[in-house]
Amino acid sequence: MVERDERELVRTLAQLLGRRAAAQIGDDVATLDLESGRYAVTVDSQIAGVHFPGDLDAATLARRLLAVNLSDLAAAGIDPALEIFGLCTLAAPRDFDHRRFFAALGTAAETSGLVIVGGDLAACPTLTTTLTLIGHYGAGTRPLLRSRAREGDGLWLGGTIGESALGRHLLAAGARWTPGGAHLDGLPAGSWPGAESAIRRHLCPRPQMALGHWLAQRPRAAALDLSDGLALDLHRLLDASGVAAQLVAEELPIPTSVFDLAPQLDLEPLDLALSGGEDYVLLFALPEGEEPPADFQAHSIGRVVPGRGATLAQGGNWRQLPAVGWDHLVDSGP
Amino acid sequence: MVERDERELVRTLAQLLGRRAAAQIGDDVATLDLESGRYAVTVDSQIAGVHFPGDLDAATLARRLLAVNLSDLAAAGIDPALEIFGLCTLAAPRDFDHRRFFAALGTAAETSGLVIVGGDLAACPTLTTTLTLIGHYGAGTRPLLRSRAREGDGLWLGGTIGESALGRHLLAAGARWTPGGAHLDGLPAGSWPGAESAIRRHLCPRPQMALGHWLAQRPRAAALDLSDGLALDLHRLLDASGVAAQLVAEELPIPTSVFDLAPQLDLEPLDLALSGGEDYVLLFALPEGEEPPADFQAHSIGRVVPGRGATLAQGGNWRQLPAVGWDHLVDSGP
To answer: Angle between the A6-16 and A98-111 helix axes, to the nearest 10 degrees?
Structure first.
């Protein structure tokens, strides 16, 4: 950081965030002219050592921050074609590459139809960044809620699970990530097929905006995004809806790399899939007979039944699925 | 913290934030039904060791977080009678008193017509909290900008300066704050009249919402809130407006406690007033002849002249006032 002070730095960074952002940033508040309607607002933090490795590349961190926050808006069903507004705080050690972070944030924001309109900078020994997003539902879209699942519904996942947690454990076990890709030479000797993909999946999740918006336009659907693992987040959906669920372990969409690599790290593949967390795919319920378009590559994983809680069949035996998952207040990252 | 996990904690905290907040919090996004119009959005962080002492009482921290953020909305001129929405992130060590923090935030928010609609919790060794606020200008109010000062304007301060920085230095010198008040027995032997008031001023600033809204309804006014000290923030207003200013040191509203106590801490009273920072009063320019109502207890401090930069007369001698102030990226708190 060569800027003389915050004032110069803010000016530089506003340029990196794009022309429209630059026009807003600099005053202590941003001014938004909003149409009347329904908006979704959300905020999420990324903290070194909790949500990501402390030595993570600044550009990758910026993209991860945005993706994790957009995933919340995806689960709310906002219209991704409408403009989204963002405010970013960054508290970073003195040697942090602010330019690289904001250049990547600006590029990723532009791709997502998002304008960064404000923020706050500070020096802090623990790298901490937050993003607040304001999205517009648009006409004809009702907020997608987790409370609308009903008996008989099918349960679906918008993508695979367990791979992100595998990526986190690979980083903890010695793998490294640079902007060029994953470096596996720090891992124990052996074969690590699919490790790079898992690390990429962990660090660079892909928010399912189109799927969320499609769901919000159904007559009835329930959804949330998996941040803390299927077991815990499923219970959130079930509790909010007042229903129970039955799943079959063998039908869960778990990549082969999770089965191949988890044992090498002394981990259970099914544990990673159920409670590893940070999958950032949508979990949703649709009335029986309704199916998401094939383009979304969603997976049917079970069905909604009367009662409370969730049961899982594994090898033909049914057991209770406990509401246990990744907890940012209790667990620590790699 | 006795809650089993984040899920239970969030439920408990939502109750502390009030009935309306509790209805929103729990989903990953909050839904806002907004009227069309102009909104002010802002975010600010409070970080232990940077913005406040690491052992600060959790309730005082919550009130300070809210006050500092509201001060930005005050400087924007929003209508404080209209509802304000807030999102709060808190990343705290495991022994932090979450209940005390959110109970105080809820009470202070209610007093300010603010509803906390969302947030994010995480564990973090460095106590860090952010607040995003969304305020509505309301009909007939234009955003108050720093760029509207013109030659001939009078320059005003909404309150006194230097006392907050004095309070920060008193804390660094050994004074302590508890919810009951200041404790001065850790300070060097001597007499410390006004020390408690200075510490309170530092920790519990009072955002000037009514003054900001009055200014925003003038035909023309320029304003910002003093967060980094008069010298630096004045230059921000002048640079944005393309004008210069003349001030007289002897006319600056500096409490007698600053003159009495600063020398005991080997500090220059005028340095504290000009660049100590965190005063959180409004600095504003009004056309010649216009005066704020006496109720606001504002102080005339100089005038706007053609040119660039600022000059200060002290003892009849004029000198350049450099744009130097409290910089959260460079300076560290006590």
So the answer is: 30
> Is residue A331 predicted with pLDDT exceeding 60?
no
Find residue A305's DSSP bridge partners: A244
Nearest CA in chain A to B70: A29
What digits encode the pLDDT tens for the residues B196-227? 999 999 999 999 999 999 999 999 999 999 99
CA dihedral A162, A165, A170, A176 (to 10 degrees): 120
Report pLDDT digits (tens) over A188-198: 988 999 999 99
Are A159 and A210 in contact by the 8 Å Cβ rule? The answer is no
Residues A258, A161: Cα–Cα separation, whole Å: 9
Report residue A170's pLDDT band, with 50, 70 and 90 as the boundaries. very high
Distances (CA, A) of B174 to A24, B126, B188: 41, 21, 8
Q: Could you tell me the pTM of the whole model?
A: 0.90
Q: Which two tokens stand for residue B117?
A: 């609609």
CA proximity to A222, closest of A212, A231, A230, A232:
A212
Question: B interface mutation test: which of A7, A11, A28 has the most B CBs within 10 A?
Answer: A28
Question: Which residues, 6 or more positions from A294, have their beta carbon under 8 angstroms from its beta carbon?
Answer: none
Question: The dihedral of CA B178, B180, B186, B188: what is its sign?
Answer: positive
Mutate which: A44, A69, A329, vs B, most B CBs within 10 A: A329
Q: Which residues of A touch B40 (CB under 8 A)?
A: 29-32
The conformation of residue A168, written as its DSSP 8-state character, comes to: H
Query: What 8-state DSSP symbol labels residue B188?
Result: P
ipTM of the complex: 0.87
Q: A59 and A100 in contact (C-beta within 8 Å)?
A: yes
Tens of pLDDT, residue by residue over B82-110, are: 999 999 999 999 899 999 999 999 999 99
What SS3 class is residue A182?
A: strand
* Cβ contacts from A onto B, under 8 A: 207
Cα–Cα distance list, B74 to A268, A316, B12, B248 (Å): 54, 63, 31, 26
User: Which two tokens mark B317?
Assistant: 């001698």
pLDDT bucket at B333, cuts 50 / 70 / 90:
very low
pLDDT for B123-140, tens place per residue?
A: 898 999 999 999 999 887
- All residues of chain A having their beta carbon less than 8 Å from the beta carbon of residue B43 are 87-89, 118-120, 130, 132
Q: Which residue of A has its CA nearest to B328?
A: A122
CA pair distance A210, B254, nearest whole angstrom? 57
pLDDT (mean) for B161-176: 96
* Statement: residue B2 has pLDDT above 80: no
Structure tokens, A66: 């945005």
Task: Using pLDDT thresholds of 50, 70 and 90, give the confidence band for residue A2.
Answer: very low
Which range has the worst mean pLDDT, A241-250, B115-124, B157-166, B249-258? B115-124
Q: CB-CB: which of B39, B75, B128 is closest to A128?
A: B128
Cβ separation B28–A126 shorter than 8 A: no
Tell me which amino acid residue A234 is. L
On chain A, the residues whose CB falls within 8 A of the CB of B115 are none
Residue A273 · residue A234 · CB < 8 Å: no
Longest dimension (CA), chain A: 66
**Distance separating alpha carbons of residues B253 and B155, to the nearest angstrom:** 13
Give A228-253 as a DSSP string: S-HHHHHHHHHHHHT-EEEEEGGGS-
DSSP B263-302: GGGT--HHHHHHHS-----EEEEE-TT----GGG--EEEE
What residues of B are in contact with residue A33 (Cβ under 8 Å)? 37-39
